[in-house]
């Protein structure tokens, strides 16, 4: 995966449409519906820490991990400004190596889609399973095949904010359901603009394939919902939320 060194500078400004407070409320509500005490929570692929902070403000004992040092630098600054002490680890999902186990893992805003091979998705799921306590939950969302094929596709998007003008160009690969994303940033520097670029891929997976990979990793696909709802996915759902569980240890297993 890319380190998103350039994207990190503009990420928050270009994602102002994301309501992190609403998403944090949703995940907290989802945990309540599962009757699962959040316990120690990992915000996996936490990016610039916006969701981590919202979860922390709701009383969760949470820390974050992300593969991008630049993203985490922004996250640390935001936590300090909010006077919140939050641990952030610079680790890719596929090589997650925690100090101990956790009770809940949350991975939001399509981070799973940034893993563009089934091997990497399985590696990430295995690391989550390794560090998730029995009975714990892994909640994540992801872009759907529909979104990759119909919404992202080969389209171009333009963003014009106070500090940056961004040209977002997509290239859809039908055989793999990958989208190549090329971002050109024109950041304001006085009366001039400085151009920088970022390129990465995202891949969409079917719910069936995700279920298979979760099972192989020792996790159970417990539920799947349309984004930020308790409703089942629709054919035109652009994002879905997956609920996976690490099953508790049985009495017979405890005896051995």
UniProtKB/TrEMBL annotation:
GO BP annotations listed: methylation
Keyword terms: Methyltransferase, Transferase
Pfam families documented for this protein: Methyltransf_25 (PF13649)
Any one GO molecular function term: methyltransferase activity
Superkingdom to which the source organism belongs: Bacteria
CDD domains hit by this protein: AdoMet_MTases
InterPro entries registered for this protein in UniProt: Methyltransf_25 (IPR041698), SAM-dependent_MTases_sf (IPR029063)
Annotated ranges, domain Methyltransferase: 41-136
Name of the protein in its database record: Class I SAM-dependent methyltransferase
Record organism: Faecalispora sporosphaeroides
